Amino acid sequence: xxxxxxxxxxxxxxxxxxxxxxxxxxxxxxxxxxxxxxxxxxxxxxxxxxxxxxxxxxxxxxxxxxxxxxxxxxxxxxxxxxxxxxxxxxxxxxxxxxxxxxxxxxxxxxxxxxxxxxxxxxxxxxxxxxxxxxxxxxxxxxxxxxxxxxxxxxxxxxxxxxxxxxxxxxxxxxxxxxxxxxxxxxxxxxxxxxxxxxxxxxxxxxxxxxxxxxxxxxxxxxxxxxxxxxxxxxxxxxxxxxxxxxxxxxxxxxxxxxxxxxxxxxxxxxxxxxxxxxxxxxxxxxxxxxxxxxxxxxxxxxxxxxxxxxxxxxxxxxxxxxxxxxxxxxxxxxxxxxxxxxxxxxxxxxxxxxxxxxxxxxxxxxxxxxxxxxxxxxxxxxxxxxxxxxxxxxxxxxxxxxxxxxxxxxxxxxxxxxxxxxxxxxxxxxxxxxxxxxxxxxxxxxxxxxxxxxxxxxxxxxxxxxxxxxxxxxxxxxxxxxxxxxxxxxxxxxxxxxxxxxxxxxxxxxxxxxxxxxxxxxxxxxxxxxxxxxxxxxxxxxxxxxxxxxxxxxxxxxxxxxxxxxxxxxxxxxxxxxxxxxxxxxxxxxxxxxxxxxxxxxxxxxxxxxxxxxxxxxxxxxxxxxxxxxxxxxxxxxx
Length: 639
Known about the structure:
thiamine biosynthesis, 1-deoxy-D-xylulose-5-phosphate synthase activity
């Protein structure tokens, strides 16, 4: 009889024998491969934490004890063991989130899943328990080795050591990689610990010694292994990195030996002081296709064949935005040796791999350290280079101060390429790139472009890297690059006119890939006799003067953007129109100021009113129900 269906909560694990726990781990891996291959999701990270998650829930009493995951994409096993075993709609509307979600379970704590934050959460929770007298509650933070490259982790460690009278356990899940192999001095140190011959030889020798004593000897070996790991680590000087922080160090521990993990975690639990347990795991453990994937160990997959790991989606001629950007940047870099790329532990997802392969010394991976990346970029610009920091839009918010005070204030020529801008879909509220347009507009001197297709991406990237005295931004959505949308004409200040109606009734300002919705809106309204002009400003910020002139000649202006409405491009255009004395009515269409759930991009756009049919209907109602001014003659200037 399968064991996994009998686990309705963490306490059900207590009745299982060691042999049954081994069976359960195997069942969980089979379940993950079978389920995630059908839905897509983070497969490799979860295959690597099966035994660790089992051990955590056997040693600690969630939710009385709190477990914080950093990052949350490694929480699938945690979901299974806390009663959530319907993965049929994982990361789809109405199904389980791909990250911890408080609405799903009392066992979930942190939903944001932005790396390197868990220790600060754990520090705060454990301090609160100390102050409120809840001294019987433990707090456990599971942090990946990649997250240790983020400065926030070390700020938290410094504060945790400042007051060590707390029941706080830090588990470092060390698999040597975040998306790809973890980089930097810390990664090299952990790799040395992971592979040190002295440690391996002593571990192997001690096991052989106890094996010679037969079954009793093996029992003693299992029972003392947690302590043995602590002894071996001290002998090998592995704890020196944490000794000055007054944090007890245990490890390294085999992250796929459940008994050893339990022993180490119980030892940590009983210290009643901050303890760090160093656990060595394998990303993609137990699944051959993942282990053979040197790039990222199947970090995240789409729908795949569970036997081979081969994607089941049909081959397509469509191009991904990251791929097109990567090719364009490489082409520019071959002509301009000032160009360098920067990534925060995401070389391949952001399209910098081609540049790194062609010019290895011209791509810098800083780890999960966006703040450092931005300020370092300012330094690179000061030194005569033009850095291009390619990063997910949702993660740039972590470095807004550096964008303001280090780049913009110093008029540094730095280009930010924001991937997955706008609605991303299945990854949910923490990963939608919907705040960048509103957030970055407050930066003095900032110039923001939003390409609508591959051709404009190439043009705008070349224009961006030519700017040497101010920051520039290109925002790229998730998914494939649409078919090129040609312009009827390009105005003197770079605005593209995509279509003109028979009359100047409505001016639609479509930002980036929303150009396709804008053109469909024009078609729908044209069938009702409404004349629509659709423009793509190309550079959304600052507002082009020609947009003010066009607004003055139309009865209604409508802006369409896939960023949050509040403080978006529509707001900026409204302010500039008012400053120019143009009183044309303006309708700002964008995303609500809310945390949007995980769902398909099309579903979220539809619910947010960002479909062409919905927009056209709203415009028709506004034209019919509002006394709008008549169209101003084309030769009449704006006031």
